Amino acid sequence: MSKAVFPNKWLPYLLLAPQVAITLVFFYWPASQALYQSVLRQDPFGLKTTFVGLANFRSVLSDPGYLNAVKVTAIFSFSTAILAMALALLLASAAEKVVRGKGFYRTLLIWPYAVAPAVAGMLWLFMFNPAMGTFAYMLRRSGYNWDPLLNGDQAMLLVVVAAAWKQISYNFLFFVAALQSIPKSLTEAAAIDGAGSTKRFWTIVFPLIAPTTFFLLVVNTVYAFFDTFGIIDAVTAGGPARATETLVYKVYIDGFVNLDLGSSAAQSVILMAIVIALTAVQFRYVERRVHYG
């Protein structure tokens, strides 16, 4: 195995410098500022700052509104990740069976990933808006009282579907690549032995794509926690009655609307700790069931 040799010893550091600079500016610097502001209390105009230690954290953790946001986030993130991954795997499996026009179908399924989260939210809001949405009109005509602007369960369902739809294309790409890497001889041999399509999938295909599934589980969890802000803001703005107010949206409300910067920073630190802990648990326990071929 040959070893890469650079003509200049500083060249590797020079190539890494842009990525290191981006990480420092857009991750470590904001994270350090959040940690610093989480132990301070500022007036809304930023004229006076007082050191309060862990008072912001105690206030946040004893706030019923924050505990409600934790519950909403748990339901929302779990539902979004499972729905997005399940539908993507179903579509990827179906696309592999297409004989003619396979590339065309794949392109159509990838396109939604290019849509911005806020735009995706507005698309679903227009379709299911109780006042002018086409699908909302069809639901009401069928006798279902559809109004996500007043019904919290319906609002949650709408944002979960919108967020999952936005992420399906990303998951689809990875599942297609994973399915293509499976040797056809394995599934053909199982078919000759009399195994049905369902049994072949759960005993051969799914175990072989387990590494990809595990990777997507981590990515989708992080996506549901952070990247769905635009969808929630466009569709429900956290309502009705905080039924869709996730942790990341509460950080925005308290920090930029209510101008409670100390509480908002403390919530950011807690949210970061939750995501790190979830990722660690996934790698520690879920990865044990992943078999790398």
Characterization of this structure:
Keywords: Cell inner membrane, Cell membrane, Membrane, Transmembrane, Transmembrane helix, Transport. Belongs to the binding-protein-dependent transport system permease family. Part of the ABC transporter complex UgpBAEC involved in sn-glycerol-3-phosphate (G3P) import. Probably responsible for the translocation of the substrate across the membrane. Helix 3 (64-96) runs antiparallel to helix 4 and helix 5 runs parallel beside helix 11 (229-235). The two termini are 21 Å apart. A two-stranded antiparallel ribbon has the order 1-2. With 293 residues, the protein is mostly helical. The chain has helices spanning 11-37, 55-61, 64-96, 102-110, 117-128, 134-141, 152-180, 184-192, 197-208, 210-227, 229-235, 247-257, 261-285; strands at residues 40-42, 49-51.
Defining key terms:
71% helix; 2% strand; MetI-like fold; mainly alpha; 2 strands
| Count of the domains | 1
Quickly count the helices.
13
Supply the CATH class. Mainly Alpha
Spatial order of the strands forming the largest sheet: 1-2
Considering DSSP H and I runs of 4 or more, what fraction of the residues is helical? Answer: over 70%
Distance between the termini: 21 Å
Could you tell me the mean pLDDT? 86
The CATH homologous superfamily is called MetI-like
| Count of strand segments | 2
Instruction: Provide the low-confidence segments as ranges.
Output: none
Largest sheet: 2 strands, antiparallel
Strand content: under 5%
From the spread of the alpha carbons, the general shape counts as globular
CATH topology: MetI-like fold
Class computed from helices, strands and strand pairing? mainly alpha
Radius of gyration: 23 Å
Run of helices and strands: HEEHHHHHHHHHHHH
CATH architecture: Orthogonal Bundle
Membrane topology: Multi-pass membrane protein
Protein name: sn-glycerol-3-phosphate transport system permease protein UgpA
Pfam families: BPD_transp_1
Keywords: Cell inner membrane, Cell membrane, Membrane, Transmembrane, Transmembrane helix, Transport
